[in-house]
Structure formats: C-alpha cells, structure tokens
Amino acid sequence: MSAPLILLPGDEVPSDHLPSNNSNPLKLGPGLRLLSQPSSKPDATSHVLTATQAGLVTTDAKRNTVSILSFPNRRYIPTVNDLVIAQIHHSSIDYFHCMVTPHTAHALLGQLSFEGATKKTRPMLKQGELVYARVLSVGVGAGAEVELTCVNPATGKSEPGGLGPLVGGMVFEVSTGMAARLIRASSSSAEQGDVIDGLAVLSELGKKLESLGGFEIAVGRNGKVWVDCSNAGDSAIKATIAIGRCLQTTDDKRLNPVDQKKLVTRILREMKLA
Amino acid sequence: MRPATAKWPKMVQKKTFDRPRRDSSPRCAIRKMSKEAPLSVAEREFILEALRENVRLDGRGADQFRSLNLSFGDEYGHVKLQLGKTSIVVRISSEVTKPRDDRPFDGLFNINLELSAMGSPAWENGRSNELEAYVTHVLDSVIRRSNALDTESLCILKGVSCWSIRADVHILDYDGNLTDAACIAIMTGLQHFRRPDAVVRDGQVIVYGVEERVPVALNITHKPLSITFNAFNEGHNIIVDATRKEEQSSEGELVIGINNGGDVCFLSKFSGAPVDAMEVVTRSNVALEKVKEINAQVERVMQADLAKRAKKGMAEESRAENDR
C-alpha cells in the first residue's frame, strides 16, 4: 500500500496508485473522470484519470475500484452508482418522483424498477415513504434528470442486496463525507480489523447491541442513514436513537476510534441499554 | 402623559382560534408555514412513537433545552446565539430621530426579522413567508409591547428628538425553535447594548461620542422570554425547544411569554390540536423555571463579557506609551 495521496480537481491519478488487478475492468467511483488525451501520433489517444473533486485517493483492490474520498461537505451531487435514500414525493404513470436532497429537482424512479416488479406486482409507494435506490444515470447538462433504480437492469435482481422500499425505522442525517466513510466501513470485510477509515463506531455498536438482536442499517450517499432495530423488542426505539446519536456525534465532533468507543459506551449507558 | 401603570407589563391574552382545519387527522402536522421539505412517514411515526416512551431524538428530557451558547462581538449589542443547531446573530443599533407626533415623550423601538436564504434553503430572499410573520408577531408582543425596553427613557427633548433603537435579527442556521432563540438573543442584545450619552443644553441636543463620555445602558424594565411548547400524541406529550423535525411532526404549539417575576405577558395558542386548559397552567410554571434558568445564564455570560471589556478599557487608558 503506497502513502496516502491527496488530489486537487484537475490532477491526474498516477498509475501506480491504481489497483493492479487486471482481470476485471477498473471501476471509477465518485470524484473521478476518464479523459482522453490526444497525442502527437495519430490513432493513439491515451486516457488519463483526473479528479473532479479534491480529496483522498482510495482504492479497493478486491472490487477493482478507485474513487476520491472527498471532504465532508453538506451538499450532495448525485453520481452514477451511488446508493441513496430517497423519499417519494408523488407518483405519476411511469415514475415515482423522489426527493434525494430537499429543495432540488426531483429524481425519477421507474414504477417497474423494483425486483420482480410487473404492472400488477409493483410496489404502491405513497408520498413520504422511503426507498433505498441506486443512481442509474445523472444526465448531461443543466436541468438533466437524475434517474434512480432499485434493480440491476442486467440481472433483474436488487443488486447490491437491500435495495427497495424501507419500511419502519428512522432516518438520521449525517454529512456526505461521513456517509461515504460509513458505506466503505460497512462494505469492507472484517479481516481488516475493527477500524476502517477511522471508524470504529459501527463495529462497536454491532458488538454491544448483538444481545438485543442486532440492527439493520442502510447508508445513503446523500447523507442519510436509515436505522432499524425492530428485533430488539421493547428497547427498539431506544436502541435506534442510540445508534443515531452515536453516528451524528462521531460526525459532528470528528471523533477518533478510541473516543468513538467511549462515546458508544457512554450513550448506551445513558439510554439504559448496556 | 401616560399613566405610570402603563409601564408595568400588560397581560395580553390571545384567544384560541378555531380555524377550520383541512386535515382531519390529528397526527398530521398542522404547521404548514414554511415550505420545509416534508418529513418522511417513517420519521414522523418514529418521533411520535419515541415520544410515547418519553425519549427524544437527541436524548433530552421533555423539559430540557438544547445547549445554549452566547457570545458577543466587538461592539455593544452584537450577540451571537447558538441553540443546538439553530444559530442567530442580533445587532442592536441606535440613532437620534424625531418622536411620533402622538407620543412626544416616547422613543422608538423596532424589531426587524427577515428570513433569508442563508438560514434555510426553504426560505427565499425578499419574499416574506408565514413563519416570518408569525415569529415577528410573537417577538413584538413578548418584548416590545410588554414594554421590556422602557421607551420613555429614550426621550431626549419632548417632541423634538428621541432615540430610535433597532434590533436586527439574522438567522444563520435553522433547526427549530426560532421564536425562543430570537427572543433570548434580542433580550441579551438589549441588556448588552450601550447607547451614546446625549444632553440638552440651551435647547440644543448634544450627542457625545463613545470616546468622550461613557455610553449608557438601556433601561430594561423586566426580562420576558418566550417559551414554546410543542404537543404530540393528542396532547399526551408536551416538550420544549423542539428541533425542526420535531416541529414538523408536532400537532400544535403553545407559546408562553413570561418574565422572572412570573408575570405572563404573552400567551398564544394559534393553531393546531387543542391543549387541555390545566396544561396551560402547569406549563406556565415550567416556563417560569426555564426563563429564570436562561436569564441567569444570560446574566452570567454578559457580566463576564462586560468585566472583560472594562479591564481592557482600563488597560488601554493606563498604558504608559501612547500613540503619537
């Protein structure tokens, strides 16, 4: 693993920072763009990867991805393949009109873009309900429509798992940077240890709340985290609030892993869960 | 000349308006003032369910305020208030003007509040919304009309000149409970503000600069603050200092303006689900407790700041070397 590399918008990603796995095509995450560079020789245009946002270059060798880990800004700009938590605003014949971020143009989610959905079995989502969806396309230029999907068009399955309507639970707001870290922390395998990206809060909560039946979490890149603890019975609400408070405090105060563990212990004791 | 009793805070009572409600469901948020993004069904249900168990999203008790943080700018009467994530700046300013013809002994006092797009993306610049009118009305009633600032003391020369005090409220960030936060900030600003000294000599009004004479504090008759209560679950849960999400899932609110002495100077139940009459009585006791608590904190922070200023001022004067 090479030293951490910070890029500014317009900087090229050096090739030694790219994953060396050649069996899969390289996938680009948010904050990067592939540009073709005309060279002096004809028929030999070379391609370069440049950053569109300032941030830390992060790679995942197993999934062969490279992305930019940006600063925790509050504004979310949709990027293709991002997982987001969207709220249904209204529905029309072909589409559900969803809010990904408040006070911006609605994103479209096809009425049939759900796993196994046909005209008769499609989910009847009402205003204010939540869906976990993937950004399918963002369009080009001003006024372009963002399209969401809850299904992989190639396989007809909800990939990655868990896409679809979110029922019950509670949504907490975090910064977009925190959401990105949470996604990476929850998708990385446990062999890397407890601390991923300086985040110990999720694994610590998982350990402490295991006796209550664990919890379900869905992280949207638009800075929303959906938490559900319905297995916990009577203490479900307290556990949900405890998780939300731990995540938000970690985000607001930028706690390090040691403080995160202390925070989890303190909040669980405060909520009389531990 | 106004009777002396007019100085005392008047009891202003607002009756309950029984406005026809479009939504028959009591759970639905009545407050549709600001065009904030609507809450999702899950969030609303969860907040109500949690309140049924007496738990709030940030772990506070029902009668607990968020952490209140007050700081002062370089000049007198420049207050920055932070209540949880709600953030407000208040600037008090003064100028000499002509008093109104029908009130030659009174100075002027105005509160200006504008919701700009800086505070929340739901607000538009230059377009007033219902929330703005509502908050302005409450602030006006609690602070201005209860005579918290003695306007008669602002008179310089009868019918000719008087002080005009102006409080400008800027909302930097909005996370619920605008009314109480703005009220605390304005009252703190008024207590902190110092106006230039002015005297009348041979029928001439002379205003001294702050370097010439020590500026004068305003005459505060009493310190009223508003406390907003939000009701949930058919009036079973009543909380203070609601966040934006809590406000959005609330079924109605009750505002009590009260001072340290327990004089209620404002009481309103504008809209929303009805609240039991006994609740109003018990909540005014809670409000009194909160007002005493907040006023004590304001006093503490302000005295610390004024002491710092006095020390700095003296150090400046007693310095051996001076600018030539």
From TrEMBL, chain A:
<dbReference type="GO" id="GO:0000467">
    <property type="term" value="P:exonucleolytic trimming to generate mature 3'-end of 5.8S rRNA from tricistronic rRNA transcript (SSU-rRNA, 5.8S rRNA, LSU-rRNA)"/>
</dbReference>
<dbReference type="GO" id="GO:0034475">
    <property type="term" value="P:U4 snRNA 3'-end processing"/>
</dbReference>
<dbReference type="Pfam" id="PF15985">
    <property type="entry name" value="KH_6"/>
</dbReference>
<feature type="region of interest" description="Disordered">
    <location>
        <begin position="9"/>
        <end position="29"/>
    </location>
</feature>
<dbReference type="Pfam" id="PF18311">
    <property type="entry name" value="Rrp40_N"/>
</dbReference>
<keyword id="KW-0271">Exosome</keyword>
<dbReference type="InterPro" id="IPR004088">
    <property type="entry name" value="KH_dom_type_1"/>
</dbReference>
<dbReference type="GO" id="GO:0071051">
    <property type="term" value="P:poly(A)-dependent snoRNA 3'-end processing"/>
</dbReference>
<dbReference type="InterPro" id="IPR026699">
    <property type="entry name" value="Exosome_RNA_bind1/RRP40/RRP4"/>
</dbReference>
<dbReference type="GO" id="GO:0071034">
    <property type="term" value="P:CUT catabolic process"/>
</dbReference>
<dbReference type="GO" id="GO:0071035">
    <property type="term" value="P:nuclear polyadenylation-dependent rRNA catabolic process"/>
</dbReference>
<dbReference type="InterPro" id="IPR041054">
    <property type="entry name" value="Rrp40_N_euk"/>
</dbReference>
<protein>
    <recommendedName>
        <fullName>Exosome complex exonuclease Rrp40</fullName>
    </recommendedName>
</protein>
<keyword id="KW-0694">RNA-binding</keyword>
<dbReference type="GO" id="GO:0000176">
    <property type="term" value="C:nuclear exosome (RNase complex)"/>
</dbReference>
<dbReference type="GO" id="GO:0071038">
    <property type="term" value="P:TRAMP-dependent tRNA surveillance pathway"/>
</dbReference>
<dbReference type="InterPro" id="IPR036612">
    <property type="entry name" value="KH_dom_type_1_sf"/>
</dbReference>
<feature type="domain" description="K Homology">
    <location>
        <begin position="169"/>
        <end position="232"/>
    </location>
</feature>
<dbReference type="GO" id="GO:0000177">
    <property type="term" value="C:cytoplasmic exosome (RNase complex)"/>
</dbReference>
<dbReference type="InterPro" id="IPR012340">
    <property type="entry name" value="NA-bd_OB-fold"/>
</dbReference>
<dbReference type="GO" id="GO:0003723">
    <property type="term" value="F:RNA binding"/>
</dbReference>
<feature type="domain" description="Exosome complex exonuclease Rrp40 N-terminal">
    <location>
        <begin position="26"/>
        <end position="74"/>
    </location>
</feature>
TrEMBL record, chain B:
<dbReference type="GO" id="GO:0000176">
    <property type="term" value="C:nuclear exosome (RNase complex)"/>
</dbReference>
<feature type="domain" description="Exoribonuclease phosphorolytic">
    <location>
        <begin position="225"/>
        <end position="279"/>
    </location>
</feature>
<feature type="compositionally biased region" description="Basic and acidic residues">
    <location>
        <begin position="15"/>
        <end position="25"/>
    </location>
</feature>
<dbReference type="GO" id="GO:0071038">
    <property type="term" value="P:TRAMP-dependent tRNA surveillance pathway"/>
</dbReference>
<dbReference type="InterPro" id="IPR001247">
    <property type="entry name" value="ExoRNase_PH_dom1"/>
</dbReference>
<comment type="similarity">
    <text>Belongs to the RNase PH family.</text>
</comment>
<dbReference type="InterPro" id="IPR033100">
    <property type="entry name" value="Rrp45"/>
</dbReference>
<dbReference type="GO" id="GO:0034476">
    <property type="term" value="P:U5 snRNA 3'-end processing"/>
</dbReference>
<dbReference type="InterPro" id="IPR020568">
    <property type="entry name" value="Ribosomal_Su5_D2-typ_SF"/>
</dbReference>
<keyword id="KW-0694">RNA-binding</keyword>
<feature type="region of interest" description="Disordered">
    <location>
        <begin position="1"/>
        <end position="26"/>
    </location>
</feature>
<dbReference type="GO" id="GO:0071035">
    <property type="term" value="P:nuclear polyadenylation-dependent rRNA catabolic process"/>
</dbReference>
<keyword id="KW-0271">Exosome</keyword>
<dbReference type="Pfam" id="PF01138">
    <property type="entry name" value="RNase_PH"/>
</dbReference>
<protein>
    <recommendedName>
        <fullName>Exosome complex component RRP45</fullName>
    </recommendedName>
</protein>
<dbReference type="InterPro" id="IPR027408">
    <property type="entry name" value="PNPase/RNase_PH_dom_sf"/>
</dbReference>
<dbReference type="GO" id="GO:0005730">
    <property type="term" value="C:nucleolus"/>
</dbReference>
<dbReference type="InterPro" id="IPR050590">
    <property type="entry name" value="Exosome_comp_Rrp42_subfam"/>
</dbReference>
<dbReference type="GO" id="GO:0034475">
    <property type="term" value="P:U4 snRNA 3'-end processing"/>
</dbReference>
<dbReference type="Pfam" id="PF03725">
    <property type="entry name" value="RNase_PH_C"/>
</dbReference>
<keyword id="KW-0698">rRNA processing</keyword>
<dbReference type="GO" id="GO:0034473">
    <property type="term" value="P:U1 snRNA 3'-end processing"/>
</dbReference>
